[in-house]
Structure to design on (261 residues):
């Protein structure tokens, strides 16, 4: 999927969503699209690129779905299988939650700042491909969503506070897009691990819907297997983003999030 490069790649648009009076999360910012091809040399920080190959990535998908050239490796298996629940185990006394709210770089930083959050990881979930790469997901054919898996201490911060951050960070009324980022991998999603999380998510959606005059399209589904994204995506903005300007992940920080650094 090709996305147009906006005139200013370091700015973000403010969300039209109304903030809840009980939320302490700063106003959200939309991301601008990212160029899909980079011709520059590698730098210490990953550049603002959405790499898409017109040949290699689609062929990779065909091979993984069993339509490409058969491998002579006897250990190779068909990887186009429905993915089961996330069976990773959080740290003792901690809980997991998964959120999809557009490009995972800025979403992760928003969650890093929430009290009670002890760990964040960006990755891919809800798809049919085993061990997808970033290039695979960018084709839009694997069904995956870009998600942030949050580990939090329920004694130090509630799941409801994570929901506040989720709603404040993105526009849940745009189907398969956030700003100029278009594709199913940018869809809005709440992925629960427990019945309590599911109930809280549905109640929270109902409250948000009353604040908006457009229909919320957020999907609420059980959390499926989480595939950790490539290392350069992890804590991307905290590490410096595109331009090497580190952004604070301190708890309670309200600094505007520069979408790509």
């Amino acid at each position: 999927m090709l996305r147009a490069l906006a005139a200013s790649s370091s700015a973000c648009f403010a969300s039209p969503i109304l903030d809840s009076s009980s939320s302490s999360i700063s106003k959200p910012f939309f991301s601008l699209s990212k160029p899909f091809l980079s011709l520059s040399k590698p730098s210490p920080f990953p550049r603002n690129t959405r790499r898409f190959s017109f040949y290699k990535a689609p062929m990779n998908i065909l091979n993984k779905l069993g339509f490409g050239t058969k491998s002579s490796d006897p250990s190779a298996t068909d990887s186009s299988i429905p993915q089961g629940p996330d069976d990773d185990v959080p740290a003792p006394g901690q809980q997991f939650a998964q959120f999809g709210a557009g490009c995972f770089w800025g979403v992760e930083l928003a969650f890093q700042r929430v009290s009670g959050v002890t760990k964040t990881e960006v990755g891919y979930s809800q798809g049919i491909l085993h061990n997808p790469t970033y290039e695979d997901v960018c084709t839009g054919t694997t069904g995956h969503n870009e998600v942030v898996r949050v580990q939090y201490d329920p004694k130090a911060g509630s799941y409801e506070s994570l929901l506040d951050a989720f709603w404040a960070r993105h526009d849940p009324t745009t189907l398969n897009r956030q700003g100029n980022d278009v594709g199913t991998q940018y869809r809005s999603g709440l992925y629960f691990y427990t019945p309590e999380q599911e109930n809280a998510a549905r109640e929270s959606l109902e409250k948000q819907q009353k604040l908006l005059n457009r229909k919320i399209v957020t999907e609420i589904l059980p959390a499926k297997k989480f595939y950790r994204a490539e290392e350069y995506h992890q804590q991307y903005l905290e590490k410096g983003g595109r331009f090497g300007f580190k952004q604070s992940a301190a708890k309670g920080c309200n600094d505007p999030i520069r979408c790509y650094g």
